[in-house]
C-alpha cells in the first residue's frame, strides 16, 4: 500500500479497476499519512476526511470511470460548493454556491476530492508561506520551500498525500512548485481548462492544470478537466489527440531550441541549473532530436516592466476583491498598495501590448518545435529566505528567480516543468519545455520520452521517514 500511494493516478485507477485495492482502503491510507506528516509539511488548508470516505464508498459501488476512486487535492483558489474560496487568506467568509468547472469535472470522472491545498496570500509569491499559517515545506528538505503559488498542491503529491493535485499558474505557479519538488507540472494553453465560475483570472494570465508524479498521470487528469464552459473569456483550439494518446506517442524527430537567456538583463543563472539544461539538451540529442542553441530576442526591458506593473495592478484588484482586506498580511497589503498607486495611464500602457508581445515571443516557433530553458534561475529557496527584505526587494528577488516563466503566461503558450536530476545537496532540479500555442500534445510526447530515458517518479523523499516518526499530532483542519 505504501508503494501504491506513490504510484500515481494511472496506476491507482488501474488497481481499483482490477480489484487490487478499494478506493476506501486507498483514501484511509492517505488520511493516515496526512495525519502523521502534514502537521509539519503543511500542504493542506482543509482535509475532507468524512466526505472523502463517503466519496470513496460511492466510487467502490460505481461503474468504471476514468478517475474512479483516485484521491486528488485541489488548490484553495478553486471554488468548492459550500466553502469560501480563501486564496491563501483569512479574508473570505461567503461559501460558494456551486463547484467550479474543474471540481465538477473531477467528481464526474470519479475522483475523490481529499482536501484543499495551501497557497500564499492571493498567489503573489513563488513560495507558500504566511505569518498566520506558517510555511509549506519541501518534502525533500524541511528547510526549503515547496514553491508557489501552488506549493501546497506540489508538496501533497511529492509527499504521497494525494495521487495528484490541481494548481493554477499566473506567472509560473504550477511550474515553480513542480520544479522544486521533483514533479511534472504543465501549464496548459490559456483557455484549455475552464476557470468557471470566473471568465478569466488576472486578465487572462492564469491557467489551471494538474501537478502529478508522471506525464501519463498529468494527461489522464487533464483529459477529464479540459474544455470550455459558457462565459469563458478564452477557448483553446481542440488538441490533435487526447492527452493520454499524446503521452504514449513517439514525438518523432523534433527541432529543439535551447535558451539560457533570462527575460531581463543582468540576471545570473546558477551553475547547477545551467548544467541541468545542458544535460537535458544532450539527452534530447541522443534521443535523435535536432538540438540547437537559440537565444530569441526576449531581453526586453519594456516588456518585463509592463509585466511588473500589471502584476502589481492585479495584486491591487485581488485585494479589493476580498471580503475583509484588513485581514490580509502587511506584505500582501504593501504589494497591493503599490498597485493601487499606479497612474491609470501607466496601467493601460502595461496591459495594452499583449498581442504584439505574443507574436514576438512566438517567432521562435518558426525555427523550432519546442523551446528548452531553465524553470528557475537557482535551486529551491530556503523557507523564510526573503522574510526580512522590504516588499520591493522581495518582489525583485522573486522576479529574478522566475524570469523564464511569465512570458508564457502573457503569450498563453503551454509550458511544462520536467524533472532534470538533483543538486549536489539532493534537491530537485528541472527544465522548462515551451510549445507552440495550443500544442500540449508535443510537450507531453517529448516529456514522456525524457521520463522513459531518465525516470524520476520512483524516487521518494527520505525525510518523510522522520516525519512519520516525529509527527503524531492529528491537529489538521477538517470539514
Would you give an account of this structure?
The chain has 479 residues and is α/β, with parallel strands linked by helices. Helices cover 39% and strands 15% of the residues. The protein is built from 18 helices and 15 strands. The strands form three sheets. It has an eleven-stranded mixed beta sheet. Strands 4-5 form a two-stranded antiparallel sheet. The chain has a two-stranded antiparallel ribbon with strand order 6-7. Helix 3 packs antiparallel against helix 4 (49-61), helix 6 runs parallel beside helix 7 (175-181) and helix 11 crosses helix 13. Mean pLDDT is 94; it is low at 466-479.
As a percent range, the share of helical residues equals 25-40%
What can be said about the biggest beta sheet?
Answer: 11 strands, mixed
Count of helix runs: 18
- The N- and C-terminal alpha carbons lie at a distance of 26 Å
CATH topology title: Amidase signature (AS) enzymes
The CATH superfamily is identified as Amidase signature (AS) domain
Amino acid at each position: 500500500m505504501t508503494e501504491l500511494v506513490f504510484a500515481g493516478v494511472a496506476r491507482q485507477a488501474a488497481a481499483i479497476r482490477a480489484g487490487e485495492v478499494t478506493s476506501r482502503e486507498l483514501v484511509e491510507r492517505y488520511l493516515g499519512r496526512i495525519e502523521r506528516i502534514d502537521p509539519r509539511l503543511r500542504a493542506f488548508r482543509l482535509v475532507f476526511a468524512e466526505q472523502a470516505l463517503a466519496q470513496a464508498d460511492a466510487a467502490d459501488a460505481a461503474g468504471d470511470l476514468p478517475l474512479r476512486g483516485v484521491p486528488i487535492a485541489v488548490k484553495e483558489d478553486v471554488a468548492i460548493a459550500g466553502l469560501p474560496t480563501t486564496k491563501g487568506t483569512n479574508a473570505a467568509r461567503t461559501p460558494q454556491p456551486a463547484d467550479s468547472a474543474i471540481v465538477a469535472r473531477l467528481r464526474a470522472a470519479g475522483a475523490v476530492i481529499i482536501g484543499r491545498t495551501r497557497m500564499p496570500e492571493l498567489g503573489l509569491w513563488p513560495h507558500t508561506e504566511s505569518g498566520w499559517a506558517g510555511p509549506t515545506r519541501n518534502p525533500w528538505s524541511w528547510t526549503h520551500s515547496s514553491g508557489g503559488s501552488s506549493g501546497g498542491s506540489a508538496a501533497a503529491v511529492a509527499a504521497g498525500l494525494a495521487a495528484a493535485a490541481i494548481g493554477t499558474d499566473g506567472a509560473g505557479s504550477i511550474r515553480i512548485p513542480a520544479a522544486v519538488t521533483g514533479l511534472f507540472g504543465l501549464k496548459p494553453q490559456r483557455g484549455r481548462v475552464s476557470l468557471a465560475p470566473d471568465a478569466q483570472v488576472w486578465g487572462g494570465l492564469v491557467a489551471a492544470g494538474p501537478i502529478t508524479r508522471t506525464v501519463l498521470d498529468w494527461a489522464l487528469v487533464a483529459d477529464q478537466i479540459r474544455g470550455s464552459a459558457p462565459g469563458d473569456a478564452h477557448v483553446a483550439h481542440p488538441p490533435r489527440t487526447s492527452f493520454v494518446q499524446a503521452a504514449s506517442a513517439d514525438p518523432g524527430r523534433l527541432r529543439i531550441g535551447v535558451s539560457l537567456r533570462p527575460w531581463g538583463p543582468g540576471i545570473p543563472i546558477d551553475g547547477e541549473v545551467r548544467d541541468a539544461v545542458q544535460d537535458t539538451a544532450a539527452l534530447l540529442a541522443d534521443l535523435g532530436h535536432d538540438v540547437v542553441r537559440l537565444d530569441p530576442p526576449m531581453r526586453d526591458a519594456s516588456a518585463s516592466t509592463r509585466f511588473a506593473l500589471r502584476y502589481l495592478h492585479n495584486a491591487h484588484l485581488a485585494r479589493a476583491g476580498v471580503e475583509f482586506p484588513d485581514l490580509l498580511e502587511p506584505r500582501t497589503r504593501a504589494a497591493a498598495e503599490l498597485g493601487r498607486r499606479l497612474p491609470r495611464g501607466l496601467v493601460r500602457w502595461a496591459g495594452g501590448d499583449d498581442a504584439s508581445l505574443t507574436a514576438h515571443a512566438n517567432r521562435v516557433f518558426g525555427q523550432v518545435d519546442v523551446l528548452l530553458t531553465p524553470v528557475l534561475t537557482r535551486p529551491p529557496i530556503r523557507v523564510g529566505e526573503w522574510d526580512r527584505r522590504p516588499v520591493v526587494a522581495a518582489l525583485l528577488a522573486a522576479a529574478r528567480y522566475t524570469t523564464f516563466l511569465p512570458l508564457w503566461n502573457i503569450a498563453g503558450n503551454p509550458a511544462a516543468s520536467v524533472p532534470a536530476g538533483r543538486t549536489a545537496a539532493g534537491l530537485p532540479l528541472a527544465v522548462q519545455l515551451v510549445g507552440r500555442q495550443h500544442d500540449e500534445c508535443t510537450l507531453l510526447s517529448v516529456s514522456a520520452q525524457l521520463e522513459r530515458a531518465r525516470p524520476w517518479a520512483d524516487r521518494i523523499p527520505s525525510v518523510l521517514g522522520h516525519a512519520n516518526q516525529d509527527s503524531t499530532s492529528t491537529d489538521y483542519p477538517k470539514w
